[in-house]
Amino acid sequence: MSEKRKWLILSYRVPAEPSTLRVRVWRTLKSIGAFYLQQSVCVLPLTSDIQGKATQLQNLISDNHGEVILLEVEQFSGITEEQMVASFNQQREVEYKEFIESCNVFLEEIKKETSIGNFSYHEVEENEVELVRLKRWHRKILNRDFFQTNYTTESQNKLDECVASLEHFTQQVYEEEGNKEGELM
């Protein structure tokens, strides 16, 4: 066991209606990377950011007639903590694999458009929108990647490859469009 971690356990119960509260709590917890131990009981590594978001959730649940308990845990047994870290990493790895696959689709699209010579400003705009989506998605995964999975570096490299590919494609479009715009009719 190398470093001592602190953990936050959040247990909650919300009224059945309106269901929007239950969905909002669940979505918020998933978005910050919570690992569910069982229904309505989840664990997170304790950081100042997580503590702040958990406090906001606690207030939201309480304000809507729910029950919530926040527990700070200083120590799990050694194997339990290792299992906990592995569970968090497993969740992130699933996300990273999906992200990397989307990057591969992006790269294939650029390759296809290049091979057929479809060098248009419209294609640049389309791909810029997709690249922004990929960057945003990657940032969200990184924010939940508390323990640096095996895919952390690979996903960054794949995103960098997408950026470079779009830059190269955009340069080709500018060269093509510039030549067409400079021609006299």
TrEMBL record:
InterPro entries per record: ChrB_N (IPR046858)
Superkingdom as given in the UniProt entry: Bacteria
Domain ChrB N-terminal: 22-178
Name of the protein in question: ChrB N-terminal domain-containing protein
Lineage of source species: Bacteria, Bacillati, Bacillota, Bacilli, Bacillales
